[in-house]
Amino acid sequence: MPAIVSKFLSDAVDTYERRGKNVEVISKTLLTTAVLAYVVKISYPHIKRKIKDKKPSINGSCVNYNNNNNTINKYGKNSKSEKEKIEDIKEVKELSLFARALRQPGLNLQFVLQLRKLIEIMIPSLVCYETGLLSVHTLCLISRTFLSIYVAAMEGAIVKYIVRKDVKNFVYMLLKWFGIAIPATFINSMIRYLENKLALAFRTRLVNHAYKQYFTNQTYYKVSNLDGRIENADHRLTDDITTFSSSVAHLYSHLTKPCFDLMLIGLSLAHSSYKMKANIVNGPLIGFFVITTTAHIMRIASPRFGQLACEEANRNGYLRHIHSRIITNAEEIAFYGGHKVEHIQLSEAYHRLCRQMNRIFSQKLWFVMLEQFFMKYVWSGTGMIMVSLPILTTSHLSSDEDQKSNTGSKVSQRTEYFTTASNLLKSGADAVERLMSSYKEIVELAGYTSRVSEMFQVFEEVSQGIYKKTTVDDETATEGILEFKNGQPVANGKIFYDTENMSITLKNVPVVTPNCDIVVPNLTLTIRPGMHLLITGPNGCGKSSLFRILSGLWPIYNGELHLPKTCEDKPCMFYIPQRPYMSIGSLREQIIYPDSLDDMIAKNVTEEKLREILKMVALEHIAIRDSFDEVRDWKDTLSGGEKQRMAIARLFYHKPQYALLDECTSAVSIDVESSIYETAKNMGITLLTITHRPTLWKFHTNILKFDGMGGWIFEPLNENEH
Q1: I need a labelling partner for 716 at 20 to 30 A (CA). Which of 200, 285, 415, 652 fits?
Q2: What is the DSSP secondary-structure string of 166-178?
Q3: Does residue 193 have a pLDDT over 80?
């Protein structure tokens, strides 16, 4: 194929020449076209951005984007066509992207402050394991620089003895060459080893810190349900921390060794030039001027790799999030036959990632071309000038002097100097190249630093009860019930833990969803021990929401909540949902969850006691079939009714003061269900039950009715009422 193309071009050129045209015109035309294409490539994004900045708003509507709270308020016509609405949505998306671009990471003060906080986590003190690794790593980097200088001098000496035909010294230097190879290769291997160890140590510190924040004050729940800043915490906890740790460890050696190389190699070159009795200032000045000029040009022409890397990580995390959703809801998707919709969403997420990666590839294409032109050719030519200056400008080694005496000795000295200086300059050029290319890595590191730092900040704020999420209700619609600050609702409610009074009391507490939907504007009631409460009402009236408020999952935006203080030996409240959670572990760990084996031993609970508990919920056959040490995937091993009864077994094991039962026996037979409720009452557990089964009314003393419109009734339960 290349031969065919070459022949075709040759015939075209011959035809062009026969018509009296000059081939040079073709070359100039092609060169001009290439230059114009490159200029258009560079200037087009800037021109496009300027046009977008000057673009007026559509249909005179006003779109206000608040950067602090991520909420969007639109005020326009009351009635709009579908086309206008779509255009407004596009306008809002463009403004959202513009606001996100303003917050994109880069090499700035914010990056320095974020990196400083993360370094304080990775290196907590001056005397720690990570400091020791850094010290040994730095020592290896310095040793490698000295070895490079020593090897360069040995190469020059070897070449000198070859030119002199001195076999004895040549063999001696060759043996030294092989001898120095052993520590040199060991140092190189140690540098890679310590870099990996350092990355793992940094990752361990960050992971421990992240896990501590993630499991404090139920942050793992609140960050995904009450806060909208992090969509894929799993990706940030795994891939982003790993990439950031590896980048920091690699960047340390990538920056430190070139600095040592430049400093020591510069001194060695100056010493060699001094031995040649040449000027030691001209060469470094030329090199400094060329390097600073090209570095400035490359910095201006460099794309925003930090923003590109951050956006790539965002899209990669979103793709992983879609995959995890499909895995989690595989059964529901299969029942609905929704594979086409999921396939479309997954493909769109992947294509968005591909478009971002292609954008990065195209940006790197031109930048790497410019980078290689300066580093491989401009710097190499500058290095040749720097090496040749001591030879061309010195007078005591002129060719006339060589002809008078010791011509061979002088030539060998020049050869030794040239070989040593060339090797040192190659090492120096490689060091400068690594420093220049490290700018791109630093900017990319800024993207990962921003994501990891933002994750820690969100975890900390969520743990303190500070949430930021897009709200669906206007502030005026909740006037008098919710207080807003910077577009976000403020949790003004108070929680009190009583040590003596074991009652649950709500005083003027509104039931509000995380999206600021007010389900119940005002709820006041008191539940005392032994007051078994039945909660009824239509779907979406606030039954499960009340349990989330009592469990501390949702914030209290107003009023007061009085709860009994949790005892050490047993919890105050124990929540059982309709779909119980089966943990990873043995059969014993399913019963005692969330206790550990040590907690069970501390409570003096034996396996015989566990067998009695299983018998209470009609699951003794599982203990007969499997031992308590049997480890299985209990989520798939147990049926729906068995999983609900296993959750009740946990209730009987922990014996809390209050049990929050949310349709937890819907898959259990009526006779077993009645036995379970009777046993729970005999244990002294106060029941708060959400159910639609009339057969359970007889086990309760009071009823709380929600009407679905914000109203409620709390009254004693009539035994004859069904």
Answers
A1: 652
A2: -HHHHHHHHHHHH
A3: yes
3-state SS string for 262-287: HHHHHHHHHHHHHHCCCCCCHHHHHH
The pTM of this model reads: 0.67
Contact 516, 665 (CB under 8 A): no
Helix (H) or strand (E) holding 4: helix 2-18
DSSP reduced 3-state for 81: coil
- Map 437-455 to HEC letters: HHHHHHHHHHHHHHHHHHH
How far, in Å, CA of 445 to CA of 254, rounded?
13
Q: At a CB cut-off of 8 Å and minimum separation 6, what does 220 contact?
A: 214, 233
Residue 719 per-residue DSSP state: T
Give me 209's structure tokens.
Answer: 């810190």
Which run of H or of E encompasses 580? Answer: none
Structure tokens at 676: 């379970």
Residue-level pLDDT at 229: 84
Given pLDDT bands bounded at 50, 70 and 90, which one contains residue 335? Answer: confident
What's the full length of the chain, in residues?
Answer: 722
Q: What does the alpha-carbon distance between residue 379 and residue 387 come to, in Å, rounded to a whole number?
A: 12
Q: Between 214 and 17, where is the model more confident?
A: 214
Structure tokens at 150: 């020593």
CA 687/CA 191 separation, integer angstroms:
63
Confidence of residue 704 (pLDDT cuts 50, 70, 90): very high
Reported as type and span, the H/E element at residue 714 is strand 712-716
- Coil, helix or strand for 497? strand
Q: What whole-number distance in Å separates Cα of residue 241 and Cα of residue 718? A: 58
Q: Running DSSP on this structure, what letter comes out for residue 374? A: I
CA distance 252 to 441: 11
Q: What are phi and psi of 612, to 5 degrees?
A: -65, -40
Q: How, if at all, do strands 488-490 and 533-536 pair?
A: unpaired
**Whole-number percent of the chain with pLDDT over 90:** 21
Is 514 in contact with 226 (CB distance < 8 Å)?
Answer: yes
DSSP string for 296-327: HHHHHH---HHHHHHHHHHHHHHHHHHHHHHH
